[in-house]
Fold each of these.
Amino acid sequence: MTKFIVSALSLLLLLPMAGNAANNARLFKNPNCFCCDEYAAYLRQNGFDVEMVNSNDMDTIKQRHNVPEPLYGCHTLLLDGYVFEGLIPVDSIRRLLKEKPAVVGLSLPGMPRGAPGMPGAKRAPLKVYSFTSLPPRHEVYDVYAD
């Protein structure tokens, strides 16, 4: 009986951890890219646990995770079975994780000024794209004008 109680209590202790699994992110970045470090800090401030992985071969990582070349950003984030490419605002990440659409992930291409982790004011609205691999396509998912 004691073993049963200890096992049951152990399972209860694990439940809160299971609820936070979606917040565990793995961010692949070039070791010389400091905006990625700022972006990871932004994610942490918004409740995500971020593991940083330095790579000198980001193109291979992007290709392995089916990111279309026109949507390449400065880093690749893996989270809850999705790929998040570039400096995507957390509102878009949370929306996708809640809705769970049939997509590979989201992308904010390039390194636009004013995006999370990038200094400076926005010069144009930030367009976040969703993308799939079969068939390969992408479409606007969110736009941040302010």
Amino acid sequence: MKELKITFFILLILFFTACSASKRFTLDKDYKNYEFNTSEEELEFVEQGIASYYADEYHGKKTASGEIYNMNDLTAAHPSLPFGIKLLIKNLKNKKTVIVRINDRMPDFKGRVIDLSLAAAKKIDMISDGTVEVKIYKLGK
């Protein structure tokens, strides 16, 4: 009888751990509220060019990396940089910055270097402009 109780208890634990919530895709909470205190000289310059943003049309759809696009996360699409890399994007018009993680690919548009999520675009105040010139720096030398 004791063995039956132990077996039942083990099965009960396995059942509840199997039913627990799991993370479906990476959230950007680890750097959403990141205070940026590094000088530009300490960063690795990647490129300069035009940034655009994408939002509603792709929200909830799978990205090239396999995760689900969430326009409220601080992510971006780039033609060639590796998935998961974190970048500092600086709006050259107003000097505002945002840190994004590459999770998608974008077509090679003439002059455009990166597509930001809606949340990232809001952080650097580019919504009304639609596109802005930016400098891109790689984080974590």
Amino acid sequence: MFPPFYAQSALQVGAEAKVYALDGRLLQAVRAAMDDFIPPGSREERPCWGKPESYRSRVIREGDIFFILIHEDPDACGAQYVGVDTGARYAVSIDGRILRRSVGAEPDAIQVPEPVDAGIPGAERMLEPESHLQVDGGTL
């Protein structure tokens, strides 16, 4: 599960006339996520939404894992590009390995379907092992 990226306000890095100290492991994690989201290549051939500078990132560090949210910068491409579910969430280890990704509107948790009973009343009991049967080593 990813942490809530908007539970608190974020420090805006990049304001003019300010000094920032950024950890190299943080930069490595953000780069790993961004390179996965938009693979490196020629920028001239890409539309606006295909360039890293058209996105913003939010980062939360929990222990040895960086959780990174990449989402559109609504001011970057103007009104000609309207994105729907175009962001991504990443869990990146402190050594730069991507541990998990969720792109677009993918759910946080793995969806496990309910068991199917094929409409037979009492089918759930049919799946339980019969304790009164003797096992003879594989003879049918």
Amino acid sequence: MKDPGHYEQLSVHFDDLDPMGVLHNSRYAALVERAIHAHWLRLGWAPDAAVSAFPDVLVAVREVRATFHRPITGVCAPVVHFWIERMGRTSCVHGYRILSPDRSAVHAEGHRAIVNLDPGTGRPVPFSDGLRVAEGLSPQVAGSATP
């Protein structure tokens, strides 16, 4: 893991739980999405190009993978630990772990891949150097073969 990552404490609400009082499996991906979104907002990103610090305003999730280790039960405040595993020209893969509130147990882990899209065409476009630098990465080198 190159990037030590970021930690976001989030809330599991009663309506996130299934009839057995366990966090529904689809809600784990939502926790990861909310954690990354909160981080990007702090960097200055916004989905509206008029107010975003970066031109990268349309990203689409390409893949989400999860391995579940231990269920989250009841209303609580788990911690999402996430980091950048790879950032190519037009795509980015975040690794993640969903931890207990005290960070002593791993409930789930996996990765989430996104693609940066041109809002006008819907086609993949390179991530901006500004976003790369804000994430602590080097700007994209012109002509680089990075995927």
